Here is the input.
Amino acid sequence: MAEVRAGPAPYIYVCTRMRVRKSKLLPKEEYLRMLNMSLPEITRSIEELEYKREIDELSASFHGIDLLEIALSWNLAKEYQAIIAITPGTLKAFTQAYLRRWDIQNILTILRGKRQGLKIGKIKEVLIPAGELDRVFLDRLLIEDSPDRIVEALKGKNLYPVVAKEFPLAVQSNSLSHMENELYKDFYRNLINDANVMKGGDLFLKYISLDIDITNIRNLFRLRVDTVQEDAREMMIPGGTFSVEELHRLNGITDQNEFIDALMEKVRVKTLLAVLDKLRGEKPIREIEIDLIKVQIEQMEKMAKLNPFSIHPILVYLEKKKYEVFNLRAIARGKESKLSTDRIKGYLVM
Amino acid sequence: MALRDVKPTRSELIGLKRRIALSERGYKILKMKRDGLILEFFKVLADAKDSRGELLQKYQRAVESMALANTVEGAIGVKSAAFSVKEVPQITLTSKNIMGVVVPKIESSKVRKSLVDRGYGILGTTSIIDETATSFEELVEAIIESAEIETTMKRLLSEIESTKRRVNALEFKVIPELSEARDFIKMRLDEMEREELFRLKKIKARMKA
Here is the structure.
């Protein structure tokens, strides 16, 4: 196949490929059909989709629902790596930067697992190499003797400065939560920096801002459920519509209506405003999260339509693919746990 | 106590009378203790029923939360978050006394944790992990509470059983046997007295003749 190398053609090509791939994702009706199936039927249906290769590959090591879940995760990781491989120029850089959040998850899982003294196999099962750090590198980290050596082995990687600074403190406090928060903050900080310096970064910046806003709003709702009053500044990501101080102030508002009014004052996204308005009554936090995710995807779709040959169609596909995997896993796990169809349906992002 | 082993002497009779008085006093006290323990047991039983119900409810909630967490986050997400738990709850075991029965008093700390203290970051997880963690923390608290109440109940029950056995032994074995021995000694002493009197009369009659 001839490769297109010059001009805007590679961008048009990859964005079109993303749209095609997106159109192949499972529609809502398919999830609804699966919800009425038994677990073996769901497994067979998933096998008939594009996940067959991973299921066959892993069937020697895993079985049952674990096989299904790990195969779905592997497929997601492979798909993301394939997308990085076909994206050109700055789009590649943006996609790689966006997928680094998986590196954070993997590194944290390895460090936690090692600190707990878990076997390598147990930790390996939980890794999803969908980011910059591939399976070979993660395997190398896994065979290191101690968490300190793992930190050293990260030298030269994006995560190293924060991990090297925060890990000794985490060991001292016996908790990696602060380090985890710092890694995610640093991840967003780097995304913003990349978007500011690279060509076409303004569109990427719009997505980052939306992602930060949704994450901060979601976490504000989460903190409201927690009985202990926390300092919200530690858990909020700078760089969105709200400053960290504003978010801290918002966290201090006890009255739900007052809190939502204060949020709505600064939010400009219409769909988000509509969802926030509906949250005035009592609503479980998980439903709020699902609503916010739906708003985020809807907004991203709008952005992708407005900018059809930008980073947006790629990001929309990456997110939608992620939620396809999450939905399939939720249906299978929900059925295995004998949850009612309505209950499972409530947790799907469709 | 076999009657053939009983020495029909006055000092033995005095000793037996003392033992009977002591046994009867002990019997009354033990009976009162048994009744008291039964009252305490019923009080604890009511608490135990409540705590068992609560425990069952919290267990079901925790299992359901785990099922939901597996559904939403997948086993991978749940395991990854679970790896972050490093600190285990602290349990302090002291004892208290209920009518002579030593029962445990369990105090726990670091069971309930705030979002920050749980070990995972808020930015990389979702609320379902919080809900699951909370429901399992509540379950651990309920288990600790239930352990205290149910151990108390078991100790009281075993003490009631042993007290009941002692009361029954005193009522149906020790006191009747002692009473029988006392009666036997009394009868033998009376008989010996009569024999002595008769012998004296006989001697007196022979001396007169």
Remarks:
- The first helix of chain A runs from residue 9 to 24.
- Residues 201-309 of chain A form a domain with the V-type ATP synthase subunit C fold fold (CATH 1.20.1690).
- Chain A has a mean pLDDT of 88.
- Residues 25 and 321 of chain A are 7 Å apart (CA to CA).
